[in-house]
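User: I'm writing a tutorial on reading structure tokens. Could you give me a worked example: one chain, its sequence, then its tokens, then a sentence or two explaining what the tokens reveal?
Assistant: Sure. Here is the example chain.
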Amino acid sequence: MLGRRLFRSAGATVGVTIVVLVVAAALLGPALSPWNPIQPDTLKRFTPPGWVTGDWRHPLGTDALGRDVLTRIFYGARISLVVGVAAVLAAGTIGVSVGLLAGYHRGRLDDVLMRVADVQLAIPFLVLAIALAAVLGGSLRNVVLVLTITGWVLYARIVRSEVLSVRERDYVEAARALGASDGRVLARHVLPNVRASIIVTATLEVARMILAEASLSFLGLGVPPTIPTWGGMIAEGRVYLPVAWWAATFPGMATFVTVLGVNLFGDWLRAMLDPRQRGT
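And here are its predicted structure tokens:
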């Protein structure tokens, strides 16, 4: 049923198509491209895109070191997707756990956990991410760790607000009266009823994490410069915009289109899983 509804929505169809193409590019693109994304070839530096030169060996041109831009975009898609998905899974696991505990038990535990969340929310997301990345250093693991630390609060807040409502419902009270443990009540009766909000939040957060990773790489605080990333390509190419606009433009377009696709799919998913919007 969700599949039929998906293709009835133009926005959702576009979003899913973009996501599928990006995933396919990340998985298959490097195998199909004959060029090395790291090896320089200074004799080919700043080769214009294929439709300008008529030479389609480099469809999107080359950068300042003669590396094929399209190939590097393919490899950069891998980093973006790995970071986006891994950070969402890690941050979601922590945030959902905190939200469940805070909303269900309330009291002092809720106060402590939410005050920690409030302190973190007082610091802008990107500022905190930059500070942590500068301290931890640049690596793929550290980028995921930074985005996890800065991203768990959103899940905790959303899940807590849902749990505060769910915990007062009759079936939860009945489960408690029958002697069910807190863990069983949370796993069997509370978590399934907040699952839709978690799924929607996680989907939309993938786009934010991809954008955050690109921002950190642009600032030189992401993965090492030797690894192709969209943010790193934009940072390298912006210096040469007057003579080689394609070196920064196409990685920027890849980032924009990917984030747009994930957001379109996330918006559709929110409408499908929210009973209040399902009929609109």
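What the tokens reveal: The chain has twelve helices and no strands. The mean pLDDT is 86.
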